[in-house]
Design goal:
Length: 279
């Protein structure tokens, strides 16, 4: 006699869970749309932020130095993937860290999002998703700029477009989870110090301006660079972009390292996020 009641109860619970999930996804979509609208209104600032530094780096290191004989002619092809990875990762980090530091500041603007009908992990996931998109867009902006600046020296292979798209997305995703971790650990008053202490080593040990295989004569530094996620992004993009059989890190190792790093950083970042928002 109790079977129909149990069945109805189970169906009701299933409908309730489905309704809750739909409500949560709708709320995440609304928050994501709001972030897109805000970014659209600041499109000029975004483009200036992500393109000014790469523009001068490509011009000096990819155009000027080769033309005056202080760099090899093929250096621009090696440099371009590093600039794509650097631009994508920095844009993703900044796109998550700076708003998060402000949201968790004295005004506690994050509370508006926490009042939405969705779990805390979805609030964090939306920030990572938006940071990933921001980083991918920043990386994609480098290609037309590189074509314009480098001219005939611009060279990107077209037979690995799938790998290229995957690497651009993974670079943005990696930067986004790093940004979430930094934004939940570093207080607002230390944010300027953070840029000096974290960004400088990240940039110069991330194989941005040189291929990893060229460091074989400095073995200790070559090993040290493997601790930097930017190294895997740069090497993966070189595999996808540079023509010929250039020696890079194994693409399987690159993907494995980035996926494992993303999962680890997201779990740690989610814990620190919960600690900061739930009091």
């Amino acid at each position: 006699m109790s079977t129909p009641a149990v069945s109805l109860s189970s169906e009701g619970a299933a409908r309730h869970e489905a309704s809750t999930l739909q409500l949560s996804l709708t709320a995440v979509g609304a928050i994501f749309h709001r972030d897109l609208v805000v970014t659209g209104r600041e499109a000029i600032q975004f483009l200036l932020q992500v393109m000014v530094q790469p523009l001068f780096v490509l011009f000096i290191f990819g155009k000027v130095l080769p033309n005056i004989g202080l760099a090899a002619g093929g250096f621009a092809a090696l440099l371009l993937p590093g600039i794509v990875s650097l631009s994508g990762m920095l844009a993703a980090i900044q796109g998550v860290t700076l708003p998060l530091v402000l949201d968790l500041g004295f005004a506690r603007e994050i509370d508006d999002r926490l009042l939405a009908p969705l779990p805390v992990w979805m609030v964090a996931a939306e920030k990572v998703l938006f940071g990933t998109l921001r980083g991918a867009l920043a990386g994609a902006c480098i290609f037309p700029m590189g074509m314009l600046i480098l001219g005939s020296a611009f060279s990107v292979r077209t037979d690995r477009l799938g790998w290229l798209i995957l690497m651009v997305i993974l670079t943005g995703a990696t930067g986004a989870v790093i940004g979430m971790l930094i934004g939940t650990v570093v207080r607002a008053e230390f944010i300027s110090l953070m840029f000096a202490l974290i960004f400088t080593p990240l940039i110069f040990t991330g194989c941005t301006y040189y291929p990893w295989s060229a460091l074989k004569t400095i073995r200790w530094f070559q090993i040290l660079t493997l601790a930097n996620p930017l190294t895997y992004c740069s090497e993966g993009l070189r595999y996808a972009m540079v023509k010929g059989n250039m020696a890079t890190l194994d693409i399987r190792l690159v993907i494995l390292a980035l996926v494992a790093g993303f999962a680890t950083l997201y779990i740690v970042g989610l814990r620190t996020f919960r600690k900061r928002v739930i009091s």
